[in-house]
Amino acid sequence: MRNVSIKAGAGLAAGVVTVVAALTILPLGNASAAKLSDQRQAGTVTIQSWVYVPLTENGLSGTAWQCSKLTGAISDQSGGPTWQDDAQYSAPTQMTGAAAAAAASKECADKVPSGGVVLVPPPEPGQYALGSYTATPGAASASQFTGLSTFYSQQTIAGQKGTIFLTIASTYNVTDNPVDVNGVEVPPGRTGPDATFVITGGTGAYAGLQGSGTWQGDFILPTWCYRLATVNVWYATK
């Protein structure tokens, strides 16, 4: 009886080990499947946005509201975009003054809170040893410098399938004059030639989303901002 008892115990232990091993393997299999699924969702996304940014009294910061359409590897929208095609989307940028602002205001049927922006005027060229700053050639005084301002913003696109978190760090020409950047003329109200942003995460369907891309911005007045972005996205492995 004693020997039988020992064999039964050994068999039970072996069974337990087998069950535990199976349970241990299952999460790894799920993680592998999730990783493969995520890789299939990677790709390029175009983000068309109109962003409402009423700046503060000094013109250097403001809160942002927006509407967006996302196409490509991600299909979603936020804030009730009203445009049906690229021509309607960019139409306000072909206008000026109050007419442009009125047209831009109709691009969002239900704009939603997005984040905030900060603008930092450029220092005088040569003021800091570690940076080079564009300015009007031959400027005689600091009051004539028209360099690009630093633009920093953390924003959220609140889509129907989840939220996407953006961090933008680039430059803007917030002067009344064109600024030459290495032979590229940046018109008033436009982003610099190397405007970039990253996607740092998301919620819902976009949990684990990351990305890196470029964008073009065009301020109207400034109150409304046309923001056209292209970004390569992927999902962090789980």
Describe the structure.
With 238 residues, the chain is an alpha+beta fold. 23% of the residues lie in helices and 38% in strands. The chain is built from three helices and eleven strands. The chain has an eight-stranded antiparallel barrel with strand order 1-2-4-5-6-9-10-11. A two-stranded antiparallel sheet has the order 7-8. It starts with a helix and ends with a strand.
How far apart are the termini? 51 Å
Look at the structure and give the mean pLDDT: 81
Structural class label: alpha+beta
Helix content: 10-25%
SS element count, helices = 3
Unreliable stretches (pLDDT < 50, length at least 5) are: 1-40
Give, in spatial order, the strands making up the sheet with the most strands. Answer: 1-2-4-5-6-9-10-11
What's the alpha carbon Rg, rounded to whole Å?
Answer: 26 Å
Largest sheet: 8 strands, antiparallel, barrel
Strand fraction equals 35-45%
| Mass-distribution shape | globular
What is the N-to-C order of secondary-structure elements (H for helix, E for strand)?
HEEEHHEEEEEEEE
Number of strands: 11
Outline:
With 238 residues, the protein is of the alpha+beta class.
Strands, helices and their partners?
Blueprint: H1 2-41, E1 43-52, E2 61-72, E3 76-78, H2 86-90, H3 97-105, E4 112-120, E5 149-158, E6 163-172, E7 179-181, E8 184-186, E9 196-202, E10 209-220, E11 224-235
